[in-house]
Specification:
155 residues; 6 helices; mainly alpha
Length: 155
């Protein structure tokens, strides 16, 4: 999200990077990071971006119970439009919304929604319902692309 400034989302982001780089959950730094994420996840995490990052970290690591728990929580805040599904940071005022001729979501919402998609795709014991949800998310993400195939940000 560019300027992540809280410890939890930064820890989740770095943990994801280490897992994607091929480190296992038993690697000491990753193991310690998950201890911190699990401890923090006992508290109520209200920020949807942080929820999405933590969900992806737990799903990527194969931690089924925590993965499922965060995906259930994220589902409560999902928005729906034209058969697709996405996540907003917070309710935007009319002045913050994109002009109607642009009709693209802010990059933070594309990023958040993309992390939820990744969590679903890496979810342990993924089923057909998860894949159906994933395809609805992909529909929304595709609609956010500009004519050149990119998105509203350079990120």
């Amino acid at each position: 999200q560019g300027g992540v400034d809280d410890e939890l989302s930064l820890s989740a982001y770095i943990t994801i990077a280490m897992l994607e780089a091929g480190h296992s959950c038993s690697y000491p730094v990753v193991r310690n990071a998950f201890f911190c994420l699990e401890t923090a996840s006992e508290k109520n995490i209200s920020d949807v971006y942080t929820q999405a990052l933590v969900a992806y970290a737990f799903c990527l690591a194969g931690k089924a119970e925590k993965c499922e728990s965060f995906l259930r929580e994220l589902q409560k805040s999902a928005k729906e439009a034209d058969g697709s599904q996405y996540w907003e940071q917070k309710e935007r005022s009319p002045s913050e919304k994109s002009p109607s001729f642009l009709d693209h979501a802010p990059s933070a919402e594309v990023e958040t929604t993309s992390y939820v998609l990744l969590a679903l795709l890496y979810k342990p014991n993924r089923n057909q319902e998860d894949l159906t949800k994933a395809s609805r998310i992909v529909q929304w993400i595709i609609r956010q692309q500009n004519p050149y195939g990119g998105f509203s940000s350079t990120q």
